[in-house]
Amino acid sequence: MGILSSSEESKSLSPYACLPPASAPARPLGSHRSQPDSASDLLSALSQEERDLIEPVIALGYPTRKAILTLQKTGKQSLSQFLSYLGACDRLLKQGYEEGQVEEAMEMFQYSEKKAAEFLHLLAQFNDMGFQQNEVKEVLLLCGNQKEKALEELVMKTQ
Asked: Is 23 contained in some domain?
């Protein structure tokens, strides 16, 4: 006969033996999060100056998270510059470009919609021709979005 009685032995072999007793208070699943989730929590973490920039943008229908991320990328600036950036991104997205590419192009060209649009258009054209996207990006930046010069460079790289 073993050291444990048969009832103690069955408890220790139970698959539920490691769980806390049912009387322990249940903790909500999200209670361990250290980052705020709700829009009000996100806004309360901002300075008054940042809230003054973001609140009108949110009132126009932009999601709080997108507005905050845009503020982080572009830095504190005037409301008109902030809205101009968001509008430019929206227009480029409506042309069918991916959000990540739009944001990257806007950053590469210091938020110039015209230059970002040229870059994205040429990037798509050269990708359609079969060139690798990373090479195309590099060449377009080196060539200042000059199509003919970039094409020559890309062709030379493949030879």
From this structure: no
For the segment 19-43, what is each residue's pLDDT rounded down to a tens digit? 444 444 444 444 444 444 566 777 7
**Residues spanned by the domain of 92:** 46-158
| pTM score of the predicted model | 0.67
- Binning pLDDT at 50, 70 and 90, where does residue 92 land? very high
Angle ∠(133,137,141) on CA atoms, nearest 5: 170
* Residue pLDDT, tens place only, 133-152: 999 999 999 999 999 999 99
Count structural domains, the chain.
Answer: 1
Indicate whether 140 belongs to any domain. yes
Match 């377009």 to its residue by tokens. Answer: 140
User: Can you give the CATH number for the domain in which 139 is found?
Assistant: 1.20.120.1920
DSSP string, 59-120: HTT--HHHHHHHHHHH-S--HHHHHHHHHHHHHHHHTT--HHHHHHHHHHTTT-HHHHHHHH
Residue 78 lies in a domain: yes
